[in-house]
Write a structure and sequence with these properties.
Keywords: Coiled coil. This protein is an alpha+beta fold. Helix content is 36%, strand content 20%. It folds into 2 domains: 29 residues; 46 residues, no CATH class.
Length: 84
């Protein structure tokens, strides 16, 4: 295979990968939200997409509640947690 054909093939592969990453959202930086346990005070960083998934069936004014990975208590969005 000639050098030019190899370069064309490599460029096509790169463009294909970029297109796929954009389509799947892999080119975006993941956002994390701080959640705080009501029982033990543990702060856990939860990916925003997880919160979005759990928010689908909530009524207005309800907030997402998850299980604490430390004590299995209830964690909710931290109101006073330091952001990084």
């Amino acid at each position: 295979m000639s050098k030019e054909k190899k370069q064309d093939k490599a460029k096509a592969q790169e463009e294909s990968e970029e297109w796929l990453e954009e389509l799947l959202g892999l080119d975006k930086e993941e956002v994390f939200i701080d959640f705080k346990c009501k029982e033990c005070g543990e702060i856990d960083k939860v990916p925003e997409y997880v919160i979005d998934e759990f928010s689908v069936d909530l009524k207005p004014g309800e907030e997402v509640e998850l299980h604490c990975p430390v004590c299995n208590g209830t964690i909710t969005r931290a109101k006073d947690a330091p952001s990084e």
